[in-house]
């Protein structure tokens, strides 16, 4: 599996949303041109308030996902959390699981495993096409 998608942290692997935060992108303003950012699902375009509004959750819920190491939003130059579309999808999935009665830590682990499975299936399909 691609190592950028499997970053061990606190005894568990994190989903791919964290690959850019540990590989040099440290601010919301550090991505490419505006046109590229529109298509980049990892570009941190959403503020904490906007992300919470889109998902129908509280900022505290998003912070709890950060504390659980499911998503680690980038910080703007002013220190504000910025979320990507990919991170919002993970947060939405976490909310679904928590709303269904799954404990937050268990929900985060399920999401990590789902992400790893999807990546493995993508790689397998790519390898099949090469043959």
Automatic annotation (TrEMBL):
UniProt region (Disordered), positions on chain: 1-43
GO term, biological process aspect, one: regulation of DNA-templated transcription
Transmembrane segments: none
SUPFAM superfamilies cross-referenced by the UniProt entry: Putative DNA-binding domain
Biased composition regions of type Basic and acidic residues, renumbered to the chain: 10-19
UniProt xrefs under PROSITE patterns: HTH_MERR_2
Comp. bias intervals (Low complexity): 21-33
InterPro entries, sorted: DNA-bd_dom_put_sf (IPR009061), MerR-type_HTH_dom (IPR000551)
Molecular function as annotated in GO: DNA binding
Ranges for domain HTH merR-type: 45-113
Name of protein: HTH merR-type domain-containing protein
Gene source species: Nonomuraea rubra
Lineage: Bacteria, Bacillati, Actinomycetota, Actinomycetes, Streptosporangiales
């Amino acid at each position: 599996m691609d190592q950028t998608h499997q970053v061990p942290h606190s005894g568990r692997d994190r989903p791919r949303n964290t690959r850019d935060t540990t590989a040099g992108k440290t601010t919301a303003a550090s991505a490419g041109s505006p046109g590229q950012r529109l298509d980049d699902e990892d570009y941190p375009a959403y503020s904490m308030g906007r992300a919470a509004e889109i998902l129908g959750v509280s900022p505290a819920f998003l912070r709890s996902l950060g504390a659980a190491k499911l998503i680690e939003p980038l910080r703007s130059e002013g220190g504000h959390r910025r979320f990507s579309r990919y991170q919002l999808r993970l947060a939405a999935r976490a909310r679904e699981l928590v709303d269904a009665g799954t404990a937050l830590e268990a929900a985060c682990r399920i999401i990590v495993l789902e992400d790893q499975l999807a990546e493995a299936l993508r790689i397998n399909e790519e390898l099949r096409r090469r043959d």
